[in-house]
Amino acid sequence: MHIVWSTFGIQLVAFLILFWLLKRYAFGPLFGIMEQRKALIQSQLDNAENSRKQASQQLEEQKQALQQARKEAHDIIEQARATSSKQADDIIGTAKSEATRLKDDAVRDIDSEKNKAIAALRGEVGGMSVAIASKIIEKQIDEKSQEQLVDQYLKEVGSK
Amino acid sequence: MDHIAPIVHKWGMEFDLAAIFMIIVTSIIVFVLARVCVRGASVDKPTKMQNFLEWVIEFVVGIIGTTMDFKKGKPYLTLGLALIMYIFVGNMLGLPLGIVSEAHHGATIFGMELDLGGEEEGHIAWWKSPTADVAVTAALTIVVILLTHIEGMRRNTKHYFKHYFEPYIPFLPLNLIKEVSKPLSLALRLYGNIFAGEVMIGVIVGGLSWAGVIPLIVWQAFSVFVGTIQAFIFVMLTMVYMSQAIVHEEKH
Fold first, then answer.
1. A41 inside 8 A of chain B by CB
2. Where, by residue number, does the polypeptide cross the bilayer (chain B) (predicted)?
3. Would the ipTM clear 0.95, i.e. be above it?
């Protein structure tokens, strides 16, 4: 085995130069890129985690909002139903009272008309009685004529 | 027919031109590969090549993670990446082809005389795995082992010096041998595996000629496997030694 010492020295220098060149121009930049990628991936993972959390939070919020909306809708329907039945009752009540009032008015009118009629009749009957009495007094002279008169009046009454 | 290395003498030293050439080629391939992977890299839309390089990074992160707490081992990630890419590419380069030239005594290159080891003529191999040269693997190992000792002293000072005398002071020689054997085994394992692979390829091609096509394919496939495993083992052991140096185990 023959060792050429110059080869040893040249290899030593060559390797050191190669090492420096690789470090300076190849692996240095590449390590930087790999570090950056690591950071990038880490940040993207964090982002994804954040988005996931946000999404689930929003989903929860939406669920609550939906629940709320449902409840409100239910309330509104209930309220509407209550209002409408109350209104219907009101209308019916008003109608009933109106009807009662009309009936009462009618009854009152009938009563007053009846009373008026009775009063009028009474007056007429009085007048007629007076007239009859005066006629009787006039014709009392003779029995015959009286009888005749009564018949005449009865006839008159009967023909009326 | 033995292949020899193109060695020249200059400034009173030997230079292995093929090894230098292959070191440069391998370095350029690794750097260009890494640059191509990183070009147009983006955070959110990685290109296919970027994905490939990131897969390599994850692989080395896994190696570091099995030997020590990754937080402690993170500074060595770039070292592990540079090592595994350089060694893997180096191991693979020697497999697909060989460039051999014949030279006679007195031949010159770039105005320098080739050293044929005293022979009149030789077959010179220009293309081989750089990691099939023990000087190359030794250089890589020295980088790693020096770094483990420095990091041990810097980040784990007390435990680092104490561990030479554990469990008792007379164990110092054994501990020293252990520290010396680490770089030796690391360098020689890689060199041996890849060099043996290339020798086998040379033997199959040279000895069997056309009959050697099928054994050659089988052996090259196996060499791909070996080269991959050796790159992995080198980086794995680097990280194991590093963790031994810097991690202080709590004793009860």
1. no
2. 17-38, 76-99, 134-152, 190-211, 217-242
3. no
Residues of A with Cβ-Cβ distance to B81 under 8 angstroms:
22, 27
Distance CA A7, CA B136 (A): 6
pLDDT in tens, B71-116: 777 788 888 888 888 888 888 887 776 666 666 665 666 666 666 6
Between strands B121-125 and B3-4, the pairing is parallel
- State which residues form the domain around A127: 5-158
Identify the residue with better confidence: A13 or A74: A74
Pick the residue with more confidence: A103 or B209?
A103
Q: Which residues of B touch A (CB under 8 A)?
A: 5, 7, 13-16, 19-20, 23-24, 27, 30-31, 34-35, 37-38, 41-44, 50, 53-54, 57, 77-79, 81-82, 85-86, 130, 133-136, 138-140, 142-143
Report domain extents, chain B.
Answer: 3-246
Other Cβ atoms within 10 Å of A4 Cβ, number: 20
CA B96/CA B94 separation, integer angstroms: 6
pLDDT tens track for B120-129: 666 777 777 8
Highest mean pLDDT among A93-97, B184-188, B196-200, B210-214: A93-97
What number of H helices and E strands is found in chain A?
A: 3, 0
Q: How many CB atoms lie within 10 A of CB B50?
A: 20
User: Tokens 């083992």 belong to which residue?
Assistant: B233
Closest residue on chain B to A3 (Cα)? B135
End-to-end CA, chain B: 62
- Among residues B134, B110, B91, B94, which one has the least CA distance to residue B6? B110
Number of domains, chain A? 1
